[in-house]
Amino acid sequence: MKTFVTVLGLASLVALAACDSAKENKVENAYENQADALDNQADNMEAMADNLTGNAESAAENAADALENKADATREAGDKAEDAVEKQQ
C-alpha cells in the first residue's frame, strides 16, 4: 500500500509539472538561477571563512548565513511569482 501511495504521489507531481506554462517556467528559472548564484556566493564566503580566525571568521560566516537566507527568500519569492503567473492563466 505504501508503495502504491508513493507511486501515485509521484505520478501526480509529474502530471502537475506538465501543466506548467512556458511563462511559469521562465519565472521559476529566473528566480532559481538568482538563488543558486547567492548560494554559490555563500559557499565561497564559507570557504574563505575557513582560512580566517577570530572575529574575521565570525563575520565571514555571518555574511555567508545572510547570503543563504537571501537565497531562501529569493526562492520563496520565485514560488510566489510562479503562483501569480499561474493564477493569471
Automatic annotation (TrEMBL):
This is Lipoprotein. Residues 43-89 are annotated as: Disordered. The keyword Membrane does not apply. The keyword NADP does not apply. Residues 55-66 have a biased composition (Low complexity). Keywords: Signal. Coiled coil: none annotated. Residues 1-17 form the signal peptide. The lineage of its organism: Bacteria, Pseudomonadati, Pseudomonadota, Alphaproteobacteria, Sphingomonadales. Residues 67-89 have a biased composition (Basic and acidic residues). It comes from the Bacteria.
